[in-house]
Specification:
Layout (H helix, E strand, L loop, with lengths): L13 H13 L4 H27 L9 H4 L7 H5 L1 H6 L7 H20 L6 H21 L14 H28 L3 H15 L3 H11 L12 H26 L3 H9 L4 H16 L1 H14 L11 H9 L8 H29 L7
């Protein structure tokens, strides 16, 4: 009896196997999931074609077109091109725009240089120096002084103002949030009481209320005739608001640290400052990275509320641009452009947080 060798079966491509497995596990794992998938596909079928038609297929991409020649069937992207500087720089004097470009360019140079000396022993000194020097340099570039023409904050606007408000709120609230989180965990009653009252009060009111208080009530505490900048009031209000949320996020990280870590630090003879800065706080911050970045993303979106106190961020510029008689009725193009820019920035922040989680992960993986 002849014996024929069995033919070796070929395995399916790994990418195809993973794709089919993902579909089965996430979209077709049960009857309810199948129904939800079909409903989602139907909604996409209803929503996506009109959006694509308006933004791409029926849109006018002629950058020299005017409002009348564009028509109303699709988007008129000449509106974005014509008002692009206003979206980015606000009402900043055109002859001084190089200062904003220099401010952003300096950030790029600093990041590139920081990546170049990534493994240098002086990297931490560089980071600390950059955090101390750059805000001062950025202030003089934006505001003026030291030979530069002074540009009032009422001229700041657009994406520049959005980034400035968000960056100041993030950088200032982070160390303050750490202090209040530690204060809420403190055994000193007065420190714990002050921290709890501040955190619960600020978290109990919406940001719009904080901004109104910073804009209207805060100047009452200063002497008559003292000019308190409107933008500075908004920055104080946003920083205090974000501090309360960061404090609660970090407190959650502190409570997640096993008790054995505290006992091991005490057994090593470390004092409170050494135990907190070297053992406890680094672990708490690592655990809290997703929630911290989530709070920062929420803050970036909440910067649009500064319009209520007369500051024109990128979203508010849409209304200012469409108030021009040459571009009446083009709000949709402006909102789509702003949404796209905001999505790019916030998605980049989210992806970077994922990299930080992987970088600082100490879990053992098989």
């Amino acid at each position: 009896m002849a014996v024929y060798p069995l033919k070796e079966t070929k395995k399916a491509p790994q990418s195809q196997t993973k794709a089919i497995q993902w579909l089965k596990e996430n979209l077709l794992s049960s009857t309810s999931n199948v129904l939800l998938t079909l409903v989602a596909l139907y909604l996409i079928y209803l929503i996506l074609p009109p959006i694509l038609n308006w933004t791409i297929f029926d849109a006018n991409f002629d950058l020299t077109a005017d409002n009348d020649s564009c028509g109303r069937e699709g988007a008129c992207w000449a509106f974005i091109y014509d008002n692009f500087k206003m979206f980015i720089y606000g009402f900043y004097p055109e002859e001084e725009l190089w200062r904003i470009d220099a401010m952003f360019g300096l950030i790029v140079v600093m990041i590139m240089f920081g990546s170049w000396i990534k493994k240098s022993q002086y990297r931490m000194h560089y980071i600390i120096g950059a955090f101390l020097v750059y805000p001062v340099a950025a202030f003089f570039l934006l505001h003026g002084g030291l030979g530069l023409e002074v540009v009032g904050t009422d001229k700041w606007g657009g994406l520049t103002l959005t980034i400035v408000v968000a960056a100041v709120g993030i950088v200032a609230s982070f160390p303050l949030g750490i202090l209040f989180a530690l204060g809420r965990q403190s055994k000193m009653r007065i420190v714990r009481f002050i921290s709890i009252v501040f955190i619960e009060f600020v978290r109990g009111v919406p940001l719009i209320t904080i901004l109104f208080m910073a804009s209207v009530i805060l100047p009452l505490f200063f002497s008559v005739g003292m000019d308190f900048d409107k933008l500075l009031r908004a920055l104080i209000g946003i920083t205090l608001f974000q501090t309360a949320y960061i404090a609660e996020v970090i407190r959650g990280g502190l409570q997640a640290i096993p008790k054995g870590q505290y006992e091991a630090a005490d057994a090593s003879g470390l004092n409170f400052v050494q135990k907190t800065t070297l053992i406890i706080l680094p672990q708490a911050l690592k655990i809290s990275i997703p929630n911290i970045v989530g709070s920062f993303i929420a803050l970036f979106k909440d910067t649009t509320l500064i319009l209520i106190i007369g500051l024109y961020d990128m979203l508010a510029i849409v209304g200012a641009a469409t108030s021009n008689s040459s571009w009446l009725g083009r709000n949709s193009e402006g909102y789509v452009f702003v949404a796209f820019v905001m999505w790019v920035i916030l998605y980049s922040m989210s992806r970077y947080s994922k990299k930080l989680e992987v970088r600082f992960s100490t879990e053992h993986k098989n």
